[in-house]
């Protein structure tokens, strides 16, 4: 069992930066693939970024490549999402999610919300233009 709590969401101007954190409880965090998803009003939840249990593999949605960076600190049971050059279309509720140890290696499936078993409550990021 993994419990996830996101923080760091806020109102920011376009072009600005925000760093999200996701604190995890549970003995298995260091063995979980972790990911960030987001959901804008009236839209489906979409994949943003993922990271393997070791941190050696990261993967991103095309829309955020080069702007967002996912990282993790297994000693602190925390995963981060550094978001730079923010755009109005990045406005959404951002969710942290935990998958299995192997989720990151499952090809195109690793981008699907159904591959992740545990979810946080979300944190709002609003980008003003």
Quick recap:
The chain has 129 residues and is an all-beta fold.
* Percent of residues in β-strands: 35-45%
Q: What integer is the average pLDDT?
A: 96
Residue ranges: pLDDT <50 for 5 or more in a row? Answer: none
- Tally of DSSP β-strands: 11
Give the helix level as a range of percent: under 10%
How widely separated are the two ends? Answer: 40 Å
Q: What does the radius of gyration come to?
A: 13 Å
* H and E string: EEEEEEEEEEE
Shape: globular
Account of the protein in words:
The protein is mainly beta and 129 residues long. It contains no helices and eleven strands. The strands form two sheets. Strands 2, 4, 5, 6, 9, 10 and 11 form a seven-stranded mixed β-sheet that branches. A four-stranded antiparallel β-sheet has the order 1-3-8-7, with no helix packed on it.
Keywords:
seven-stranded mixed sheet; globular; 129 residues; 45% strand; 11 strands; 0% helix
Strand and helix map with partners:
Layout: E1 3-7, E2 11-13, E3 18-25, E4 34-39, E5 46-51, E6 58-60, E7 68-73, E8 78-83, E9 92-98, E10 118-119, E11 123-128
Parallel strand pairs: 2-11
Antiparallel strand pairs: 1-3, 3-8, 4-5, 4-9, 5-6, 7-8, 9-10, 9-11
């Amino acid at each position: 069992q993994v419990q996830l709590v996101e923080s760091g969401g806020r109102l920011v101007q376009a072009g600005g930066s925000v760093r999200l954190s996701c604190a995890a409880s549970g003995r298995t965090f260091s063995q979980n693939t972790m990911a960030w998803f987001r959901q804008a009003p009236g839209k489906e939840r979409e994949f943003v970024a993922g990271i393997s249990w070791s941190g050696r593999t990261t993967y991103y949605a095309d829309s955020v490549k080069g702007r967002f960076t996912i990282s993790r600190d297994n000693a602190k049971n925390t995963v981060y999402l550094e978001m730079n050059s923010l755009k109005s279309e990045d406005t959404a509720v951002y969710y942290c999610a935990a998958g299995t140890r192997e989720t990151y290696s499952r090809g195109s499936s690793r981008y699907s919300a159904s591959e992740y078993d545990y979810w946080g409550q979300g944190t709002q990021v609003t980008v003003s233009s």
